[in-house]
Design brief:
The complex is a heterodimer of chains A (about 110) and B (about 150).
Chain A lengths: L3 H18 L3 H25 L2 H33 L4 H17 L1
Chain B lengths: L1 H18 L3 H21 L3 H25 L9 H20 L14 H8 L1 H29 L1
Classes of the chains: A mainly alpha (about 110), B mainly alpha (about 150).
Chain lengths: ~110, ~150
């Protein structure tokens, strides 16, 4: 016996854990992808067990949105990497704080 | 049985994607997540969604592999077997509640609308607008590339 609601909850928990604990920019992106996969999984499985066609048709919109979100996040990651040369959120925050401190001192 | 195996694989690959240190290995594990998800969809009679998921997943992974190579500064380290085994066992344990527990819900809201009917009768505006947006983006990229090419000469 399988329950996809619990499966998607587990996936969501893994994604949120990754989002909260991982500092690498690409890991953050992977966590966002996992959260999106969890939401889609829940939606598809409920749709396929209840009202098949409507759910699948709605899901195409969800996929487009998900892809657009991924593209925007990836573009931001590349811009941040090119501008600051770091791929760690902690280092990025430290750099920004240092910049603010220098501005206040000046 | 195959659905249970697929869901266990899904959770294990998601755990690997989060817990592996190297970005490229993490993306490789994410590819497993996409493949398992689309197989789950295909086995649950949602073939259109499975194909969409597969296509979107392949596109995302291609871009992610490229940016993973770009964003990782150090050469890839060898994965510790102990950690790998630990993550796999952890993922397998995490997938057990999904296999053995269940949440009951209403089963009476079954509607017999087919995918084609739903797409064209209920979501026609969305579909047309999405096509328009995709065409606009493609046109924008083509114009930017053309301007860049002309500017470079």
């Amino acid at each position: 016996m399988m329950d996809y609601v619990i499966l998607s909850l587990i996936m969501l928990a893994i994604g949120i854990y990754g989002l909260l604990t991982k500092r690498h920019l690409l890991k953050v992106f992977v966590s966002v992808e996992l959260i999106a996969t969890a939401a889609t999984l829940n939606f598809v499985m409920l749709a396929s067990s209840l009202s098949k066609g409507v759910g699948e048709a709605f899901l195409i919109l969800a996929f487009s949105t998900d892809t657009a979100v991924s593209a925007v996040i990836l573009a931001l990651l590349v811009i941040v990497h090119k501008k600051y040369g770091v791929n760690d959120i902690g280092e990025l925050v430290k750099m920004e704080q240092g910049k603010e401190t220098r501005e206040v001192d000046a | 049985m195959i659905l249970e195996v697929l869901s266990a694989g899904l959770v294990i690959s998601a755990c690997l994607a989060i817990f592996l240190d190297e970005a490229v290995y993490s993306v490789a594990a994410l590819s497993g997540t996409f493949i398992f998800t689309s197989l789950l969809y295909a086995l649950s009679d949602a073939l259109f969604v499975a194909v969409f998921q597969f296509a979107v997943g392949v596109g995302t992974l291609a871009v992610l592999f490229l940016s993973g190579e770009m964003l990782s500064e150090k050469p890839a380290k060898k994965i510790s077997r102990k950690i790998l085994l630990l993550v796999i066992v952890g993922g397998a344990l995490l997938s057990l509640p999904a296999i053995f527990l269940s949440v009951s819900g209403p089963n009476s809201v079954v509607s017999g609308i087919s995918f084609g009917d739903a797409l064209w009768n209920l979501r026609a505006v969305d579909v047309v607008l999405q096509g328009l947006v995709i065409m606009t983006i493609a046109l924008g990229i083509a114009i930017v590339l053309y301007e860049k090419r002309n500017g470079g000469k």
